[in-house]
Design brief:
16 strands, mainly beta, Immunoglobulin-like, three-stranded antiparallel β-sheet, 13-stranded mixed β-sheet, 266 residues
Length: 266
């Protein structure tokens, strides 16, 4: 009898453990918001504004350009430039070239909404060199990209670095301020987003670096993307980056200087 009761208990436990409830996650979909990504540099052909909308969790994460916007950029001298829509959601002014020291006002009107932002283009800081140096880190020896420049004396300078490998954008966000480097020669390391075998630089790779001087609000945006938008720690939840846009849109407007350098890894 004891043996029979034991068998019944084991069978009951087996049946209970075999019955799994199907749990359906009810992921709430937040209200759609416009996303504006606007860039103006001191180089011709770089003025571009991308307008899209946020998407729900289960929607493919491709660019959903929004057409029909009226986009203008006005400088502190009163010059107004209108951007033309060259494809859905992409607006450009190929002849517009920013001037360091001037302040630029962005205005976007779309579907009854008005979004504005202000960005001041900082003075150019000379890009002195881009080079590859081998470093011994936790996963062994790696070839790593470095950028050399001299920070001008006086705090309040901000920098962004954009790296491409064989034409592919390195998605790592790299921005710094001059709180700890004020007036010094800087050799800035550009780290990959993921330290895996795929991200290792190889002999023959073509590396391109864009060196941008940016203003404080744009620095805060990219810093928040780097440190907060993806969440930090096990308990952190992703948050929206700190925007310099007014009117309720996500994104940023950056008026910056830009210098580029290409090298071959050897």
């Amino acid at each position: 009898m004891k043996t029979f009761n034991f068998i019944l208990i084991i069978l009951a436990v087996f049946l209970i453990s075999s019955c799994e409830d199907v749990i359906e996650l009810n992921l709430e979909t937040g209200a759609e918001k416009y996303v504006v990504e606007a860039n103006l540099s001191d180089s011709l052909g770089t003025c571009k504004v991308l307008i899209s909308k946020t998407k729900s969790f289960n929607t493919p994460n491709d660019f959903a350009g929004q057409s029909g916007a009226r986009v203008t950029i006005t400088d502190s001298r009163g010059n107004v430039s209108s951007l033309a829509e060259i494809s859905p959601g992409i607006y450009q002014a190929p002849a517009l070239k920013g001037v360091p020291g001037l302040t630029y006002n962005l205005r976007v009107e779309i579907d009854g909404n008005v979004f504005t932002a202000v960005s001041k283009m900082p003075p150019l800081v000379k890009l002195e060199d881009v080079y590859i140096k081998e470093l011994l880190i936790f996963d062994g020896v790696r070839k790593m990209t470095h950028v050399r420049f001299t920070d001008p004396a006086g705090k309040g300078n901000y920098y962004r670095f954009v790296e491409y490998r064989n034409g592919v954008y390195n998605k790592a966000v790299s921005v710094i301020n001059d709180d700890l480097i004020d007036g010094n020669l800087v050799n800035q390391l550009l780290a990959p987003r993921e330290f895996d075998d795929e991200s290792k630089l190889q002999v023959g790779d073509k590396v391109k670096v864009d060196f941008l001087t940016i203003d404080a609000p744009v620095y805060k945006y990219w810093f928040s993307v780097e440190s907060g938008a993806q969440g930090e720690g096990e308990t952190s939840a992703p948050i929206n980056p700190v925007t310099n846009l007014n009117g309720g849109a996500l994104g940023y407007f950056s008026a910056h200087t830009i210098q580029s350098r290409e090298i071959i890894v050897n």
